[in-house]
Design a protein that fits this description.
9 helices; single chain; 3-stranded antiparallel beta sheet; two-stranded antiparallel ribbon; 58% helix
């Protein structure tokens, strides 16, 4: 999983012992889709909207042009990492549903209240999540819901996420879920490395790469 994954408490730890999870293939049969997960399309427009929300939040938080440019440079693969997150969220949700795990609104509110207290307030939490995990404030609750879902799934599986065996158990459940979802990843955004369980840049020279460097240039125009 991508190192900037905002569900750091569970999923980042699990990535250490990640088992083969997804496969990637062309998406010619799904025009306009960045990915198709279980028959549900993640459209290019949806992906770009999510990325633009992050960039807008970064711009609002960093009015200084030089500092903003540095922030853009540090998150130059935002489009690809965001798609990775959107796909993996769906895989996790399916695994949780298969295990009979659910997350309530109260669960999210409780976690958020605790994190806001630790961070020093709502604004501080939102800025911290934006800087560390590339999550726009509008999607913070969604991010927390995913974090809770991962924690509950690990508990339901009896998986100790501090131990290799527990991590393997966790990823085995996600692997089973991903097989049911039949995921197609648009080669524009790379391929899925089944050994390392993360998105990888495409090595096919005929694929037109759309990079965040171009987005940054447009931001500066």
């Amino acid at each position: 999983m991508h190192r900037r994954r905002r569900t750091a408490l569970i999923l980042s730890a699990a990535a250490i012992a990640a088992a083969p999870l997804l496969t990637a293939c062309g998406s010619e049969a799904h025009p306009g889709a960045a990915a198709v997960v279980g028959g549900d399309r993640i459209t290019v427009a949806q992906l770009e909207s999510r990325v633009n929300e992050v960039r807008a939040a970064q711009r609002a938080a960093i009015p200084d042009d030089a500092q903003y440019s540095q922030a853009i440079a540090k998150s130059g693969t935002l489009t690809r990492s965001t798609l990775h997150t959107m796909v993996l969220d769906k895989v996790l949700h399916r695994a949780a549903a298969d295990a009979g795990v659910s997350v309530t609104r109260r669960d999210v509110q409780t976690m958020r209240a605790g994190l806001e207290q630790q961070a020093g307030g709502k604004k501080a939490l939102e800025q911290g999540w934006l800087q560390q995990y590339g999550v726009a404030p509008a999607h913070l609750d969604d991010s927390l819901r995913t974090e809770i879902e991962a924690q509950k799934l690990a508990k339901k599986l009896g998986a100790d996420m501090n131990a290799p065996e527990g991590q393997a158990t966790f990823w085995k459940a996600l692997s089973a879920a991903s097989k049911k979802l039949d995921i197609d990843l648009n080669p524009r955004y790379g391929t899925w490395d089944v050994d390392k369980n993360k998105r990888a840049d495409s090595k096919t020279p005929w694929v037109r790469e759309v990079t965040d460097a171009g987005a940054a240039a447009r931001d500066q125009a």
